[in-house]
Amino acid sequence: MIDVEREWKPRILGLGGTTRQGSSSERALRAALDLAERAGADTDILLAGDLELPAYAPERGSVGPQAGRLLDLVRRADGVIVASPGFHGGPSGLIKNALDHLEELRDDERPYLDGRAIGCIVCAAGWQATATTLAALRSTVHSLRGWPTPLGVTINSTPVGDADPIVAAAPQLGLLVEQVVNLARWQRMAATVEVAS
């Protein structure tokens, strides 16, 4: 097996949350990024306050420093984890609009989310909302040429008794993070082999 540079750390970007501080989706995203750091990744996070962007319009392009920061962090990312609440059968407008801004990466060397694993996390008050939102989020990621991880994590944010739904989802979050980080490492390994050939 080829030894990938030992000092190299994948950079994982987390996007998500809601305007309500400490929301389930924000907590799930923070938990996932904590696991990514434990797995040896460097992480960045953009929460609702960072993602409150003007509605994306292709003819206008991305406007302002917040949109510029989003695009810069996506360009640098080796993998992305997106955590959205379920809003009426799909991701929140906040998350969808941020993903729509990635149209500005269409002419990049790595356009859109090309070649990157994208972990999708959905939190909603009920299983039906989590399932429909996960399907919609995965479809959007596919359209942006990202590779949704085989596991998408759905979290029913309605607590049962004293159980914390985010804590209960820790094993699934760990597997999702493992898939994102491992694909980033495999991509690096493949690039190293190509350069060496």
Biggest beta sheet summary: 7 strands, mixed
Q: Quick one: overall form?
A: globular
Q: How much is the radius of gyration in Å?
A: 16 Å
Order of helices and strands: EHEHHEEHEHEEHH
Helical amount = 40-55%
- Average of the residue pLDDT scores: 91
User: What count of helical segments does DSSP give?
Assistant: 7
Structure class: alpha/beta
Head-to-tail CA distance between termini: 15 Å
Strand content: 15-25%
Low-confidence stretches: none
Query: How many DSSP E strands?
Result: 7
Please sum up the structure shown.
Helix content is 44%, strand content 18%. It is α/β, with parallel strands linked by helices and 197 residues long. The two termini are 15 Å apart.
Protein described:
The relative contact order is 0.18. Strand 3 and strand 4 form a beta hairpin. This protein is 44% helix and 18% strand. Strands 1, 2, 3, 4, 5, 6 and 7 form a 7-stranded mixed sheet that branches. The longest helix is centred in the C-terminal third of the chain and has 27 residues, at 170-196. It has 7 helices and 7 strands. By secondary structure, the chain is α/β, with parallel strands linked by helices. Helix 1 crosses helix 7. It is globular and about 55 Å long. The model has no long low-confidence stretch (mean pLDDT 91). The chain has helices at residues 24-38, 48-51, 65-76, 93-100, 127-143, 165-168, 170-196, and strands at residues 11-16, 42-46, 79-87, 90-91, 117-124, 147-148, 153-156.
